[in-house]
Input
Amino acid sequence: MISEIFMRFPGGRDRALTLSYDDGVEQDIKLIEILNKYGIKATFNINSGLYTPKGTVFPEGRIHRRMTHEASVELYKNSPHEVAVHSFSHPFLDKIPPASVIDEIIKDRKNLEADYERPIRGMAYPIGAFNDAIVESLRQCGIAYSRTVISTKSFDIPTDWLRLPATCHHNDPDLMKLADNFVNYNVWGPPQMFYLWGHSYEFEEKNNWNVIEEFCEFMGGRDNVWYATNIEIYDYIQAYYRLEWSVDMDTVYNPTAYTIFIKYCTAQHPPKYISVKPGETLRITE
Ligand SMILES: [Zn+2]
Output
């Protein structure tokens, strides 16, 4: 008889890494080169009302340089990464009227959906500002998750996706210690997630591109890590929770479009691993 079941990520992996970078700045080009080199995936949060006009010459020393509309679409569309909402014009959402909050989110969603030709359901709060009313507005705007600027320094799978915390910012002095703990942790029960956030212009500002290069080199290329965008992880986890189990947990039905991986334990045997295909009803026999 099955006593315990735990989600596993695609391929049976027991941990996932994802990154979240904001504002659509020129330095995302270099960041994407680094991510692609190590097979790591990220989500880029874009303000579609703040593209730099074509032909703009930035003053000497300007570090926060948003891309033009054309350069932005060209960069992200030809990449394996996710594009998500960061509001139309980057206000403090808790300082503007509720209808304007909705306008900021819907306008950004619609613009990004027109450019990227897919539903856009992710978000990061501009300046990290949110409250309960804003969360409710997001829900009504069809936003599935929204990242805050809160760091937990943990690898727990999030439960409140519209108040999504990160593991840490890339400037965290414990970054590599956390990375080391993450890859070496022996995952027995629930899977783990490392969620890193920041702005790529900060690497230019602090002249420390080596921080992200070293992090990606260390984290990349590992068989037990799922490298995914925010929405890929969100969608997979939602699919896992849609599995239908018999009461004694020996039969499982997968009503989703995802192949779902599961670790299960019985009192008598060592843990076993199974996968359930889309539409499949699987009988687990010992
Ligand atoms: Zn921002």
Q: What stands out?
A: The two ends are 8 Å apart (CA to CA). The mean pLDDT is 97. Helices lie at 28-38, 69-77, 98-116, 132-140, 175-184, 201-205, 209-219, 230-241.
